[in-house]
Design goal:
The structure is a homodimer. Helix content of chain A is 35%, strand content 25%. By secondary structure, the first copy, chain A, is of the alpha/beta class. Chain A has 3 domains: 168 residues, Rossmann fold; 162 residues, Dihydrodipicolinate Reductase, domain 2, CATH 3.30.360; 82 residues, 2-Layer Sandwich (Alpha-Beta Plaits), CATH 3.30.70. In chain A, strands 7, 8, 9, 10, 11, 12, 13, 14, 15, 16 and 17 form an 11-stranded mixed sheet that branches. Chain A starts with a strand and ends with a strand. At the A-B interface, helix 1, helix 2, helix 6, strand 12 and helix 12 of A face helix 1, helix 2, helix 6, strand 12 and helix 12 of B.
Chain lengths: 436, 436
């Protein structure tokens, strides 16, 4: 059988990894697929100087539209990244009847609805396994492996940079700013680290997971996003003392009122497997009504781990290249006509437990005063730590753990606590989940 | 579109779970699949008294062959277990042109070659996600999610009973026999626990994983199997001291000489995520050349977790019911014509590191004598613990960790060490893997 022809857009880290894996593992892949897969066209800047693909066998161009418009190309692999050019290229490829594979989480999270609609209308597939958690086959698990379940919630460590920073802070007692600099030097974090440390990258991925879990459309703009730049080693230490770790999680949950969709630092029990996922590794914990908790762990970034997912998508596409679109797995896991408009809740309407830390005057009755405020708001406390001041310091540190409560209610209580005479400065608040 | 008709063989724990999940999640599943899936026929002993399916809507029979011979049934779900009857039923279903879903690991591991050949000849699918690691979608990860990789090795906790026993022994310092009794009382272990604690059940599952990883045929009879009944809390304590935990692992690895295929207790670094998989939970760690390590975690048994995998297979089958067999994922992940005859190595030809414990006379020079034997066999030691005897006891305990060495070589060295005058009794040996 003739080889399937692939056009690659972008020959950077992931593009290079994809070309390398397809070449190195060509025999293995052919044994699995039953036919060869060949990169026949590659577009990239400065492409003439690349050394990964053989220019005698592959048509090289600086103009990516040449590839998506070439009638020979059957599958377009978009690894350029970004929103604008990538979107135009993907839509053009779809218009030209080509199947698309992309690793572009931002593109899918933000322009997914338009892209999926175009692909469904044209009957081509758009695959994006590499867009979430790198090499971990979590998209496949969500769309197929767990398809028997009503998904209850997902909690994921889906940004390796953030997890590396938190791991170093915890294991070595180093400050956020200090570790961030190292992460930048190691190439884990960009010069402008906002996307990673403020949770935007994780929010892109969570948007995709939430859609696959609950059959809702992709709604990146409704995702609540809070980064890790305010996490201190002090809070990590108290969390540890109480049996918890702080992880930067993307959490999505189905409730009676709607879907929670939120990225933020989170205390989780140290005994949970996901609390032991360290360094740059990713993990996604999925809770299904039938299967219970399942966890998927692996490298969330890097040339070859990401290429592993890109090539898996290419293999899926090739295995089914002659299968009509309506007999394939739906692009977002649910039939387009069966998608739901379940509302996404604002952060004030979500419910979670809380870790709260505050400085208080060292005098009798302060804890009683604080507890009373929470009691008035029907907020139960399940643990209290009171740290006496050092000689010559005037303030005690109070650490409280609350039970689950609506965020709006907690905001009101915190405002009242902060207004107490005995409380100094702001209350530090970190959300907490038991994941049980 | 008309509902797809499913015939269920067996309405025990997993059969009941499957019926329950299909009924409870019918709307969710239809939204994902685009058509309804209905159990129309059920076979089981004492079926008239069951309360799970509605006898007004489902045809009940005690004769499973009635179901596999019924022309209305499109998918046969075999949940009877065992080798003989199950094999006849599955082969008959295939002969009748029906797709098959089974949770029967023994059947696939032992009679898989015959069954797959029959299914390939007839152009029907045989799915067995539930046969390995219960609800964890590991078969799908191996056949599809990781298809870009040359798999290097797999290490799995694939028997929940064994993992429960080892976890209790470690956490509570209880003996094997004591915990086994509790596991039996809790229903985790059978009255005859051989299948679980001697590693036969794990060997069935490992046989399947190895075939999917390396494209070799199913060869249960070549799997080396060693159980956990000789593991003591003493060895667990020494392992812990050295930074390791003891887990009952199924390990399969590709080497230059052939495939290693072995189930046995194994020391692994306590820092590895899989070392922290506790209780009845399962986890499979897969190392691919492109993706590196990935891990899949979840419930390995139980009615609904297993049903989650069975129903996922049914959904896969229904989604592709009109797709020709040659455009589907191959039954064992590789095209039938591309399977390999890579030899499976005998245990003496495998290579691993070792934990060794022995009792020695409390006199100078014993450690030197023992070390010399290993040196003569070119076996490097990487750690030594010497435990002084208590007052009035005559023997010291020596604990050694070796580097990787061929098992045959280690056997020779151990025989020589046991022959030393200063060494009392047998050397206790537990294999060790770094999984790095």
């Amino acid at each position: 059988m003739e080889a399937v022809k692939v056009g690659l857009l972008g020959l950077g880290t992931v593009g290079g990894g994809t070309a390398t894996v397809l070449l190195r593992n060509a025999a293995e892949i052919q044994a699995r697929v039953g036919r060869a897969i060949k990169i026949t066209h590659v577009a990239g800047l400065g492409i003439a100087n690349q050394t990964i693909v053989d220019p005698a066998k592959v048509k090289l161009t600086e103009d990516a539209f040449e590839v998506v418009n070439n009638p020979e190309v059957q599958i377009v692999v978009e690894l350029i990244g970004g929103y604008t050019l990538a979107k135009d290229l993907v839509l053009k490829a779809i218009e030209n009847g080509k199947h698309v594979v992309t690793a572009n989480k931002a593109l899918i999270a933000v322009h997914g609805p338009e892209i999926m609609q175009a692909a469904n209308a044209k009957g081509v597939s758009v695959s994006y396994e590499a867009a979430v958690a790198g090499g971990i086959p979590i998209i496949k698990a969500m769309r197929e492996g767990l398809a028997a379940n009503q998904i209850q919630w997902i909690a994921g460590i889906i940004n390796g940079t953030g997890n590396f920073i938190l791991t170093e802070m915890r294991e070595k007692g180093r400050d956020f700013a200090d570790v961030l600099k190292e992460a930048q030097a190691l190439g884990y974090a960009e010069a402008d680290p906002t996307f990673d440390v403020e949770g935007i990258d994780a929010a892109h991925k969570l948007t995709i997971l939430s859609s696959l879990a609950f059959g809702i459309n992709l709604q990146f703009d409704k995702t609540y996003t809070e980064g890790i730049s305010k996490i201190t080693t002090e809070d990590m230490k108290y969390a540890e003392e109480l049996g918890y770790r702080i992880k930067h999680l993307g959490i999505t949950r189905k409730t009676d009122k709607g879907i929670e969709l939120r990225v933020h630092p989170t205390l989780i029990p140290a005994k949970r497997l996901i609390a032991n996922v360290n360094g740059v590794m990713n993990a996604v914990l999925v809770y299904g009504d039938a299967v219970g908790p399942t966890l998927y762990y692996g490298a969330g970034a890097g040339a070859e781990p990401t290429a592993s997912a890109v090539v898996a998508d290419i293999i899926d596409t090739v295995r089914q290249i002659d299968v009509p679109a309506d007999q394939k797995v739906p692009l977002l896991g649910f039939k387009a006509g069966a998608m739901r408009d379940t509302p996404v809740l604002s952060i004030e309407d979500t419910k979670t437990a809380y870790y709260l830390r505050m400085s208080a005057e060292d005098k009798p009755g302060v804890l009683a005063e604080v507890s009373e405020v929470f009691a008035e708001h029907n907020i139960s406390l399940e643990a209290v730590l009171q740290k006496e001041p050092n000689e010559g310091e005037g303030a005690v540190t109070l650490v409280l753990l609350s039970q689950r409560v609506q965020e709006r209610n907690m905001n009101d209580a915190i405002r009242e606590v902060e207004a107490l005479d005995a409380i100094q400065g702001e209350v530090v608040r970190i959300r907490m989940e038991h994941l049980g």
